[in-house]
Amino acid sequence: MNSLAVEPGSTVAYPTGDWRNQRPVYRDKWPPCGQTCPAEEDIQVWLGLASDRQWEAAWRALTERNPLPAVMGRVCYHPCERACNRTHLDGPVNIHGVERHLGDLALEHGWRHHLLTEQPQTQQVAVVGTGPAGLSCAFQLARRGYPVTLFDARSTPGGTLSSGIPGYRLPKSVLQGEIDAILALGIQLKLNTRIGVEIGADTLREEFAAVFLAVGALQPRTYPDDGYGGHSVMTGVDFLRRINDGERLSLPKHVAVIGGGNTAIDAARCARRLGAEVTVVCPQDPHGSHGGHPGAEMPASLDEVIQAEAEGVRLRYRVGVRRLVRSGAHLSGVEIARVDQIHDRHGRFNPVLFEGTEEFLPAGLAVFAIGQEVDWRGLEALVEPRASSVFIGGDAAGQPRFAATAVGSGYQAAMSIIAFLTGAPSQYRHHDKAEVTFRDIKPQYYPKQVRREGELMVASPGGFSERVAGLDGDAALVEAGRCLSCGVCFACDNCWHFCPDAAVIKQMGGYRIDYDYCKGCGICAAECPCGHIDMEREAG
Amino acid sequence: MDTRDTFRHNVLTSGHRACSGCGEAMAARMVVDLIGPDAIYVNATGCLQVFTTHNQQSAWQAPWIHSVFANAAAVASGVEAALRARGKDTPVVVQAGDGGTFDIGLQCLSGMIERGHDVLFVCYDNEAYMNTGVQRSSSTPHAVRTTTTPPGRLSEGKHHLKKDLISIIAAHQMPYAATATVAYFPDLKAKVEKAMRIKGPRFLHVLSPCPLGWDHDAALSVTVARLAVETGLFPLIEMEYGAVTGVMRLARQRPVEEYLKLQGRFKHLFADKEGAAEIRHLQALADANIRRYGLLDARTEWDTDRAVQAQRQGRGGYAVSPKETSL
Questions:
Q1: Going by DSSP bridges, is the β-strand pair A125-128/A210-213 parallel, antiparallel, or unpaired?
Q2: Please, which of A30, A92, A223, B252 could form a disulfide with A84 given CB 3.0 to 4.6 Å?
Q3: Looking at beta carbons, which residues of chain B come within 8 Å of A516?
């Protein structure tokens, strides 16, 4: 190269950075999916890895917070997808489809969870309940070297995942596979062990340095009036538990399911599969009638409702049960009426019926799925008053009662338990970075791409086989690639190409801004597809 | 020697005196890094020459020569002939603004092409004489405000149309001529690389927004260039021996107002009835371009959506050969 034209006297000796009155700053933000995920998964990270075909790395990133991806990919109501910024472009990323694909890959290839530490701890922890909260907590503790014992009153692990969710949504083998992978971390499992019966609550508190109660909310709420009880009346929880335990209930021709939640829809779809004509008596309005306002719309997941209707379940909205109609001991039907008010002014569920709108709904069986409460019997010694070594999570800790919330709660509990045992501050960090809205996204850089859905399989009458197929590898790859990567750099090179001043320097693992020369034009921020670059006023 | 970046040469490096958000600096940096430092760059007078060579300092990390305004193509002809005489095939590249191409340099450019010199001529078109204070050139579009075409009671900005330079170039029956902008890097890259593979005279016309002269926000240089293409006002085409051989299809046509309203040089068009009539004229010009080049129905996979698609780990950058670590 001819050096005369270049040296000496390069303009590099003339820093133009002092022309600037604003400066670009690279800043990672929290995409809305991760922000809304009840399990606080770093969704954008594992979607990014999946789009690079790094399937196992993606699974490992995902299981940092959620050890049950194959389960959650099937049963979670994916609030992440409702928050997804891609909705405003062409439809949300099928996050649950990719999650399920990763979970299924792990089961297929037998990927094992890794311990985070080689050093075993000595303090024993008891986790009561093997639902999503208990499993999540036990998983996080065991990865960090704590000896964990899991207790469950039932003969199969999984809690509500096993007793409350029908096989057509979650095959038992998938649940068992992910539980086995968690237990393989060296967790002791004690089934058929009810606290207060097989083992005393006091014993538990004395033998274990910490106790995590994730006992769920399995006590069905009932109407106070005795007139609603008796023959041919069941609770949704019991109904589902019996079916999930393999019992082939023989049902009357007509079944009425009372309630608007997911338990009600699950019960209705199960009854439908057993050959009954099913009507759901839902006190709330259908989806979409109040713009998603909680309380006014039915709490059941929309996907489930759509599938239920496709299977022939009838839904009656904004009606409540006035009384059960019996001929002798036998149930002949329920009298329903339109509901005026659902919640009273204190926000409590307290429906008021319109007089004069009564209607007779024939039913040989009424299934009440109107809510569940926590059953504290046998645990009083632990919770009244609560000892400092006792932690409560999952459905037992309160609303909302979603499986993913329980997983997140289990993670938080594990962090709290470690903080309690070590005396150090909790390592739990809530997402505190700025959120990215669609206004920060530059849609022109993301051409439209149709969302891939898992196929609906034909529902065989009476069959409890899985209803929705997973995404295949190609579709999962496309879906992961549809992620906008909101607020997180994906190395598209735009800032580097467009900088007129050679002030954006590309280096291994990203870019840096050379503020000696940056004139602060803001092109990098204006053309950053994902909103990773902020412009800040210069001080002074 | 600036070696801060291991992924591009920075043939045009930092410290130059271009305005904040300069589209021409952006365009030139892309083009010269795609060509690399092993070339001889001949510059016409213009912004690019002024802001890169200032006060005994040069922003060029490659051989670079400037003579006078009109003769860049003639100088390049001589450089190319001299290299040929010495048996060398070092690429020769001319860089000029629209003044040095459309107006003052046109005669030398025409001669260079007609004689068949193996030179790439790149015109960075910012549609007026920006460096001397925004005077109109023959590249300035219709209805634009410049300091020599001020809008007012008797005028809606420049009366005449933008010169159809690419047709003049094409009339020379030359091997390769193309238009490009800063907004579509993969497209610009493909065109520069194609031009560098062809022997003989080649011409590249790069639209380069000017935040000062066009009076738009410095952050919007890329956006404005993208809208110039998406409205149809600046068609992206390739020509070989006078025939159109490639166009970038528009995924959708945007109304010209979207392009005009971002720029102060068109602000007077939004003030009154006469301005509204001029907007209709500009829309008609855009529609005529779209019909002429078939921008909406060209049978090509390459369209304005595809060309901007952001990809993980970049879209392919610059050819980087091992750098000299010491001089």
A1: parallel
A2: A92
A3: 14
Q: Is the dihedral of CA A60, A65, A71, A77 positive or negative?
A: negative
- CATH for A31-218+374-434+444-483 (3.50.50.60, 3.40.50.2000, 3.40.50.11290, 3.10.20.600): 3.50.50.60
Q: How many whole angstroms separate alpha carbon B252 and alpha carbon A59?
A: 39
Decide if A2 contacts B3 (C-beta within 8 A).
Answer: no
CATH of domain A227-372: 3.50.50.60
Distance of alpha carbon A173 from alpha carbon A103, whole angstroms? 13
Average pLDDT along chain B: 93
- In the predicted model, is pLDDT for residue A433 greater than 90? no
Strand ranges, E, within B161-201: 176-181
> In which residue ranges of chain A is CATH 3.50.50.60 found?
31-218+374-434+444-483, 227-372
What gap in Å lies between CA B298 and CA B188, rounded to an integer? 19
Identity of the amino acid at B127: E
Backbone angles phi, psi at B82, to 5 degrees: -65, -45
What span, in angstroms and rounded, lies between the C-alpha atoms of B31 and B28?
Answer: 5
Q: Is A231 a residue whose pLDDT tops 80? A: no
- Which of A250-259, A462-471, A495-504, B134-143 is predicted with the least confidence, judged by mean pLDDT? A462-471
pLDDT digits (tens, 9 = 90+) for A322-365: 888 888 888 899 999 998 877 777 777 677 888 889 999 999 99
- Say whether A340 sits in a helix, a strand or coil: strand
Q: Is the pLDDT of residue B324 over 60?
A: no
Q: What's the mean per-residue pLDDT of chain A?
A: 90
Say if the Cβ atoms of A5 and B30 lie within 8 Å.
Answer: no
Residues 6+ apart with CB under 8 A from A356: none
What are the pLDDT digits (tens) for A250-262?
A: 899 999 999 999 9
Q: Which residue type does A500 have?
A: P
CA distance A501 to chain B (A): 5
Report the alpha-carbon angle B50-B92-B324, nearest 5.
85
ipTM surpasses 0.90: yes
Record the tokens describing residue A451, joined without a space: 């969302």
Chain B residues with CB inside 8 Å of A530's CB? 310
Q: Enter the DSSP assignment of B258.
A: H
Please answer whether residues A202 and A99 qualify as being in contact, where contact means their C-beta atoms are separated by less than 8 angstroms: no
- Token digits of residue A400: 């909302």
- The Cα of B318 is separated from the nearest Cα of chain A by a number of Å equal to 10
Is the model's pLDDT at A193 over the cut of 90?
yes
Window 182-201 of B, Cβ < 8 Å to A: 182, 185
Bridge-based pairing state of the strands B64-66 and B40-43? parallel
